[in-house]
Recover the amino acids of this structure.
């Protein structure tokens, strides 16, 4: 591993990638042993080219899915009006190929680029202990573990994957879970090829460890290399061709000897070994693969172990839910690169200029919107720090409250859909990702609201914490600024309501695409009212009558008090807007130019996120399809804003590929490890032991959540969700909590875990979000940042307790969607 990287040097998309290399691919230290340099450089460049070529696959991946979504939904709309033949003549309709091609491309992406990921340093390690060692000790441990763990396990992986591919090629195996039934061997070829590239990349990593440990230690390792290579060749032959290997029969006999220990006990040893090796600091993915091989062969047999490895890797590659991971990551990175969030923050800051604590409001609004665009905490915290930190300093804002607002707002990306963590968690819990998204929606809104109420409440009690911006910093407005705010709010509410009615099919009986046409007409009329006072005077009473009619028409459909509150709010806004009817309004009233900037910043990302997220929550598109549409929309926005360049877009693809490899390869490795662990029967034994204790099921759940919270300090969310949660899952499934069935229990538990890990992100001293903020606002003391974070950690705990006591906060929306 390279020397410890200062958090402030991390890129804003890299809270998971603390090891990313800074040197160019193929670049080697001049004092590296001469014969090692060309080997290191060649393999680095080989994997670099592999990564650069593979990242381009995201373009056809987006294209295939976008074509499927548009074609399928257009056909459905036209067919509902009896235009089936016209739709078919235009070539519209569901495709046979899109589902299979898209998931195969997504699988090839992370599997083929695994070696590139290692070359770039993106495979994470839990360096809680590792980073405290000297560089020579780190390098020595790395070299030993590469030789003992990585290279043997990756050789085995490559050979077994090649056999698995060869079987598919020879038999002409096809996908059984799709009507198209394509051949599987082209996509499955990524397994042995990716394994080979990953194995080769282990050689440069070993040589880099040799270089960093010093010449004396390197000499001893180099002297042992010939013996190591011979032993490795013999071991490989003894495993795969024992009949042609001297001593192969003896080795086979040893492998066939069953241990005296029970299988569950072996699983416990496996779990302890995993924790020990992970905390040593070796990359987690490779640790899991090696331990799954060793303990799987020890506790079961070689054949079962290899079968579990190939099946779990293949299922990860072809998992259509996980296909959303690279696409949502790309969507967020492209939006960030286009500068949409900076423009939105500036406009909200100007609009709220006369409000106490306006910058806190701006930070929380932007962070909530950005959370719906990307689940990358580092990106959110860093971007918010850059946008708000200096302005808050100049405006005399309290450092602790400002730091807490930025870091807490940044962590919302873990929870608010479309969260990458929830996408990964869905298959682990065996629940629909859609339901996790629906379940997270209200908790995310509750937490964002609690943040807002806390900051505004503190500013109301103590105005010095968030003073009103100076007169010079405030924008020019008309004499009726209150009327401006009321009218803009009413217009936005009306457009949102018409949009909701369109989604619900209220205008479907009029004509094809009736909802979109009526929404477009309403937006045109709203724009005309925005530009012309006389049109605005006519539109205001019509708008009030429209909302009154909607309340009356839907009175018996449930939640009448919500309708009354909304109507009362509309009437209040109309009362505030009455100055536009004054005789002098023609000269004293006009909409400030800041509203133009506000909508220019707000509308593009809001529309993009609303369509992507709304289509998921309402069941119109799968998460993967919505992710592709979101990524496509983000690219279009970058073109419209003239921020698109081919070199910049290629950099976005590379960043997305790196984070995708990090997550998806660990998903595959943990699935293999988890399958071996479960086959040993240890989870069942642990469940029976815990349930046998004389403890309340709620107390057991609190102990489980406490463990996850503590592990959130040294570990990222990826290993917790993929390794720790599956171990605890059998116990949670047996708990009788709130009378929930298994499915609802898993959805509720998943959101509890997400909020819990979000809380751990705000828990000093390990919370990396503090270091991201410190890196972009260096004049803020780390102590003040910690104290600010801890205030919001308490709010998080309050939210977690509310969700724990009232599970319907999570389950209400998923059950409403299905009419339960």
């Amino acid at each position: 591993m390279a020397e410890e990287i200062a958090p402030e040097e991390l890129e804003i998309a890299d809270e998971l990638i603390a090891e990313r290399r800074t040197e160019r691919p193929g670049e080697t230290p001049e004092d590296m042993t001469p014969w090692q340099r060309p080997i290191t450089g060649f393999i680095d460049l080989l994997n670099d080219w592999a990564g650069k070529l593979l990242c381009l696959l995201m373009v056809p991946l987006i294209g295939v899915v976008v074509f499927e979504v548009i074609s399928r939904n257009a056909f459905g709309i036209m067919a509902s009006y009896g235009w089936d033949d016209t739709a078919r003549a235009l070539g519209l309709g569901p495709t046979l190929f899109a589902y299979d091609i898209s998931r195969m491309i997504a699988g090839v992406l992370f599997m083929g680029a695994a070696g590139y990921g290692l070359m770039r340093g993106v495979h994470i390690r839990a360096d809680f202990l590792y980073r405290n060692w000297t560089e020579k000790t780190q390098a020595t441990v790395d070299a030993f573990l590469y030789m003992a763990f990585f290279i043997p396990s990756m050789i085995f992986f490559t050979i077994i994957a090649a056999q698995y591919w060869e079987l598919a090629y020879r038999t002409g195996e096809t996908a059984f879970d799709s009507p198209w039934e394509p051949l599987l061997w082209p996509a499955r070829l990524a397994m042995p090829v990716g394994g080979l590239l990953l194995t080769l990349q282990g050689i440069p990593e070993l040589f880099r460890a040799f270089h960093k440990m010093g010449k004396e230690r390197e000499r001893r390792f180099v002297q042992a290399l010939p013996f190591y290579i011979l032993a490795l060749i013999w071991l490989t032959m003894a495993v795969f061709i024992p009949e042609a290997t001297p001593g192969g029969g003896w080795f086979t006999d040893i492998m066939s000897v069953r241990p005296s220990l029970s299988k569950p006990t072996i699983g416990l040893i496996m779990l302890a070994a995993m924790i020990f090796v992970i905390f040593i600091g070796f990359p987690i993915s490779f640790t899991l693969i090696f331990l799954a091989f060793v303990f799987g062969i020890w506790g079961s047999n070689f054949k079962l172990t290899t079968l579990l490895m190939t099946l779990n890797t293949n299922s990860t590659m072809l998992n259509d839910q996980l296909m959303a991971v690279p696409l949502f990551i790309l969507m967020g990175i492209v939006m960030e690169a286009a500068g949409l969030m900076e423009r939105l923050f500036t406009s909200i800051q100007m609009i709220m200029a006369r409000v106490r604590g306006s910058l806190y409001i701006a930070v929380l609004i932007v962070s909530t919107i950005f959370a719906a665009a990307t689940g990358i905490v580092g990106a959110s915290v860093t971007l918010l720090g850059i946008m708000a930190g200096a302005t808050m300093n100049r405006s005399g804002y309290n450092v602790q409250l400002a730091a807490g607002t930025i870091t807490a707002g940044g962590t919302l990306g873990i929870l608010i859909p479309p969260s990458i963590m929830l996408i990964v968690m869905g298959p682990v819990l065996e629940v629909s990702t859609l339901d996790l998204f629906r379940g997270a929606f209200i908790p995310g809104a509750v937490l964002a609201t609690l943040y807002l109420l806390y900051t505004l409440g503190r500013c109301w009690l103590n105005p010095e914490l968030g003073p009103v911006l100076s007169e010079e910093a405030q924008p020019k407005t008309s004499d009726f600024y209150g009327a401006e705010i009321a009218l803009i709010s009413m217009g936005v509410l009306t457009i949102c309501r018409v949009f909701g009615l369109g989604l619900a099919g209220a205008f479907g009986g009029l004509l094809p695409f009736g909802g979109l046409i009526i929404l477009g007409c309403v937006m045109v009329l709203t724009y005309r009212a925005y530009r012309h006072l006389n049109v605005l005077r006519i539109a205001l009473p019509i708008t009030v009558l429209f909302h009154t009619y909607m309340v009356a028409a839907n009175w018996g459909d449930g939640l009448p008090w919500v309708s009354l509150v909304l109507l009362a709010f509309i009437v209040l806004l109309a009362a505030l807007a009455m100055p536009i009817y004054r005789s002098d309004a023609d000269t004293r009233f006009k909409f400030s130019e800041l509203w133009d900037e506000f909508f220019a910043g707000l509308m593009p990302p809001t529309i993009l996120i609303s369509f992507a997220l709304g289509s998921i929550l309402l069941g119109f598109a799968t998460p993967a399809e919505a992710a592709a549409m979101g990524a496509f929309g983000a690219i279009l926005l970058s073109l419209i804003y003239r921020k698109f360049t081919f070199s910049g877009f290629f950099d976005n693809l590379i960043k997305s590929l790196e984070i995708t490899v990090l997550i998806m390869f660990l998903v595959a490795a943990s699935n293999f490890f988890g399958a071996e662990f479960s086959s040993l029967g240890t989870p069942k034994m642990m469940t029976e032991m815990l349930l046998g204790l004389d403890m309340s099921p709620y107390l057991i759940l609190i102990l489980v959540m406490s463990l996850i919270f503590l592990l959130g300090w040294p570990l990222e969310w990826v290993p917790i969700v993929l390794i720790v949660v599956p171990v605890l899952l059998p116990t949670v499934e047996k708990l009788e909590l709130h009378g929930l069935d298994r499915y609802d229990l898993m959805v509720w538990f998943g959101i509890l875990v997400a909020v819990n890990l979000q809380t751990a992100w705000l828990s000093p001293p390990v919370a990396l979000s503090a270091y991201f903020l410190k890196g972009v606002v260096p004049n803020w003391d780390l102590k003040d940042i910690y104290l600010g974070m801890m205030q919001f950690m308490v709010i998080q705990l309050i939210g977690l307790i509310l969700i724990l006591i009232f599970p319907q906060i999570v389950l209400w929306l998923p059950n409403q969607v299905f009419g339960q």
Q: What stands out?
A: The two ends are 52 Å apart (CA to CA). The chain is about 70% helix and 0% strand. Confidence is low (pLDDT under 50) at residues 1-18.
